[in-house]
Amino acid sequence: MKDKNAKRYGMVIDLDKCTGCGSCMVGCYSENNVPFKADETNKLDSINWIRVYKITNNKTYPNTEVCYLPMPCMQCDGAHEGHSPCVSVCPAVATDYDYDTGIVSQIYTRCFGCRYCMAACPYHARKFNWWDPVWPADMEKYLSPNVSPRMRGVVEKCSFCFHRYQLARDKAYLEKREELEENEYQTACAEACPTGAITFGDLNNKHHAVYKLKNSPRAFRLLERLNTNPKVYYLTSKSWVRKAGDNYLAHEEPTKIKNNIKEHH
Amino acid sequence: MKIDRRSFLTYTTALVLGGAAGSMLTPAPWKLTDDVSIWTQNWPWTPVPEDGEVTYKQSVCTLCPGGCGINVRLIDGRPVKIKGLEDHPVNKGSLCPMGISGLQYLYGPSRVTSPLKREGKRGEGKWKKVSWEEALGAVTKKLAELRASGRPQSVACITGSDQGTTPNLIGRFLTAYGSPNYIRSATAQDAIEQAIYLTQGKQGTPVFDIENADFVLSFGSGILDGWGSAGRMFNLYGSQKPAKKIIQVEPRLSDTAAKANQWLGINPGTEGALALGLAHVIIKESLYDRNFVENFAFGFDDWTDDNGKTHDGFAKMVKNFAPDKVSKITGIDKAEIVSLARAFARASKPIAINGRGHGAIPGSIDESLAVQSLNALVGNINKPGGISAIPDSNYAKWPEVNIDEIASKGMQQPRIDGAGSEQFPNTRFLLNRLPEIINSAKGESPVQALLVTDANPMYTLPDTAATKKAFDRIPFIVSFSPYMDETASHADYILPNHSYLERLQDVPTAAGISRQVISLAKPVVKPTYETKHVGDSFILIAKALGGFIENAFPWEDYEAFLKETLKDQWRKLKKKGIIEIKYDLPEPLAFTFNTVSTKFEFYPTARGSVKQKQNSALPTYTPVPIEGDVQRFKLVLIPYDSIRLAGGAIANAPFMTKTVDDTVLKKQVGLLEINPATAKGLGLKEGATALLTTPKGETTVKVHLYEGIKPGIIAMPRGLGHTAYSEFLADKGINVNTLTGPIEDPGSGLDMAWGIRAKLIRI
Fold it and tell me: B98: which strand partners?
């Protein structure tokens, strides 16, 4: 079932570097043919594969601090690999775990819109298409052929730009190579981030930047204690940000709590 | 069998339950639901984008003056994606969300797709599609009439830039035609350029060598909110070589303040006082650069002029700005002021910068002078990590323009906006004064025809109502905008320019970078609609006007003009897309300044007009008067800038508006930021609806409680509340310019308003 050369693609987002500019969101929209409506202020029906949240330390002026938190799909491994919360509930195998890359897929033509996966996802990473997409006044001309536009009635989410992986694999195959270089496969958000806060690569590969970064003392993951085992790591030097990453009690100190989840290698 | 109520209920229940149980057992409903969903999902209006060959084209983004390099991915010649150009010297691959959204400026419902003639009343939105011949003919006819009546000076042109060949071509047109009224929109750069000119005697593009600085003291500059070239600033922040300390001074916790090492919440409008307060501490504790101040500066100590009159020097003047007093003015703790002054002076390469937010409003000259003086105190003028000015680029050369008698008479008329007059000798353009001048004119408007390109004054000028009133008095307005913006929708004719991705143009050095970088924006796609390069439109109008005007434009079209003016640089620019002219800073120990004293002038002797005659030209701090009665308007409203909202001439793309948080815009209502303590006093809770009133107008808002704003201050973003464009932008929130007004700097005439008094009532 599992290849010994299998990859575990993941992301490390340095919150100390993120300025909240939103370039990752816009880069993702234009890469993945994400539609837009006249009113996008109801964030529950606004389709975003990555959304930048703004969090504060809840202290009064002038001791207030703000941190931006970009959240793509966490591509959860689950307590054992392949046991992602959404994959386990999908009745149509419309979302599946790819053991070669660790990426959780979304197959629109299989999805019939039951939205169990949305309920199961603890990160609000999944969005439902309540309407058919409309690109007015020639805007269809800028759509990318690499990603299918989605129709009404299906769920969509971040794919770690899987089409870019496929294109890179195709190229490597033609050049008779087995392995991809680190820079050959990068997500659109990592590419768009103007401060270089987002790093992407194979978490299993010692030569990839993410390998070292995820072991940084600043690293943490969101809702770690749910055993979702996400492949998106965050870096922060602020303890209040770290604490906002899970439902810690007042006396709990995140850095001192041992995480009993083993990562899959 | 008799059916009574009881048995009816029993049987019905049994039937329903049985039916339900039965249908659970048959797959028919599930299969049908599935089939229906799959069938409807395949309805043909979900597009299937065509595949094809992948190519890349490099160009430069001209959505703002930042001049970032872009790399456009095309499928069979169809652009599908924009990203930053890795090896461009300005942005090194980094790009802001506006730049990435670029393709939404190429297509979309906001584009003007052909020349239009107004049919209904102004702003009513009734247009007639006309041919280019007719549109150009109508403009030519009007301009010829005004010239024939001996009033060429009554034609004014508002542009977004005065650098590069397109603005120069338009300037040339106005000269040959006979109007001195070329008016460029103002930014903070105007005030900074003027301060550099007054202290260093240099006219040029300001340089802030943040690349090489290690301590950045920002007086409200949104260096991570879109100030300067956004791509450059983000790249610098991300790479941090060398590691920088960033101190952000502003009343609101902006994105820049959030990422700064220290945020100092200051009373808005008192930044200049803080700069002088820091100077006070630096001089008092002898922390200043003695070598620079003693050998290369003038006016630090008291001095005597040719008439034997003694003037106070900068050192004596700042004695009035002791930390105690400055603390009271700015609201910043005394100890903070002292420690900040020490840290700034002791840093190895400190730099102080100003220009609030994106730098949309020039601000007071005193403030810019105070910041320049602070830089001079630590001796970081004309050196790596410091402040300088690059002489305006002279890469483009074209023949002298000969003008006829009518033009000559017109050119001798004073400028309508008063720039360059005895009152404002050092200011080149004063767009902010135009509405008031037109509105207060007796008889007909001094502007009889207005040409607008790369600018949207009806949205961006403060006091929208006054601007509209003034524009209503102008009998003939022509817009060259590619988009149906507020100014275009109030025009009589629209002669649409190509969108930025369809247009050829040179992009001169952006403010900030310590090199001359001239890039070429090359069309990445052929024009989609019936549009024309604005340069071509002007050349055609010139040719139609004939005579000396025609003779001033011996070129077939804009491209020929560009080729000729760039001469041998053209081929290089066309091939490489960029020319970099290294600008060598003057030798650090051989400073020569073009000032009267040949030194850096702490006492700017060239500062003309009222100010100097009165007393002293030294920068000082006088509170900028803001409009409104304190008793009636107890709060202060400040506009703020966000990187996700474009507040300038070109508005948000739908993608950018999509990223805006629901704490800024909810449905069609804009949210106002207010400190929870202030809100409590007004009985306002999160999301409450309130009536916001300022001396200029009123509007309904919702409130967003935010601890990151100084109590007593309320803030609204620039970039919302458009009335034109399309449903993706129009009528969302409020244009903060409708609630504010300009305040004229007495020395420069530039707008120095930073806010306005306001009142908030729960409704």
Answer: none
- Amino acid identity of residue B443, one-letter, is G
pLDDT at B643: 97
Looking up tokens 């998106």, which residue turns up? A232
Assess whether B576 and B601 both reside in one domain.
Answer: no
Contact yes or no for A19 and B644 at CB 8 A: no
The amino acid sitting at B329 is I
For A23, the closest of B37, B45, B97 (CB atoms) is B97
Asked if the Cβ–Cβ distance from B46 to A149 is below 8 Å, we say yes
pLDDT digits (tens, 9 = 90+) for B479-513: 999 999 999 999 999 999 999 999 999 998 888 88
* Side-chain-side CA neighbours of residue B259 (13 Å): 28
Together in a domain, B179 and B310:
no
Beta bridge partners, B717, equal B640
Is pLDDT above 50 for B661? yes
Q: Which residues of A touch B43 (CB under 8 A)?
A: 132, 151
Q: Name the residue facing A152 among B41, B75, B667 (closest C-beta).
A: B41
Number of domains within chain B: 4
Tell the burial category of B358 from Cβ atoms under 10 Å away from its Cβ (0-12, 13-18, 19+): buried
By DSSP bridging, strand B449-452 and strand B155-159 are parallel
Contacts of B52 in chain A (CB under 8 A): 145
Domain assignment of residue B83, yes or no: no
Containing structural domain, residue B639:
635-762
Contact call for B234 and A39, based on CB within 8 A: no
Residue B353 to residue B356: CA distance in whole angstroms: 10
pLDDT of residue B586: 61
pTM attached to this predicted model: 0.94
Residue B620 lies in a domain: no
B111-144 burial code (b ≥16 CB/10 A, e <16):
bbebbbbbeeeebeeebeebebeebbebbbebbb
Q: Count the neighbouring beta carbons within 10 Å of the beta carbon of residue B473.
A: 15
Decide which of B537, B561, B581 is a domain's last residue.
B581
> Which residue in chain A is spatially nearest to B711 when comparing CA positions?
A61
Is residue B600 assigned to a domain? yes
**Cα radius of gyration rounded to whole Å, chain A:** 18
Helix axes B165-177, B558-566, angle to 10 degrees: 110
Q: How far is A167 from chain B (nearest CA, A)?
A: 12
* Predicted local distance difference test score (pLDDT) of residue A265: 47
DSSP for B91-132 reads TTT---HHHHTGGGGTSSTTB--S-EEE-SSTTS--EEE--H
Chain B environment of A168 (Cβ under 8 Å): none
Q: Are residues B309 and B170 in the same domain?
A: no
Cβ separation B656–A144 shorter than 8 A? no
Domains by residue range for chain A, with CATH: 9-256 (3.30.70.20)
In B638-750, which residue ranges form alpha helices assigned H by DSSP?
654-659, 676-681
Interface touch A26/B101, C-beta < 8 Å? yes
For residues B361 and B309, state if they share a domain: yes
In a domain, B304, yes or no: yes
CB B250 within 8 A of CB B220: yes
Cα angle B336-B339-B343, degrees, rounded to a multiple of 5: 135
User: In terms of domains, do B318 and B375 share one?
Assistant: yes
Measuring CA to CA, which residue among B641, B663, B667 is closest to residue B652?
B641
What interface predicted TM-score (ipTM) does this complex get?
A: 0.96
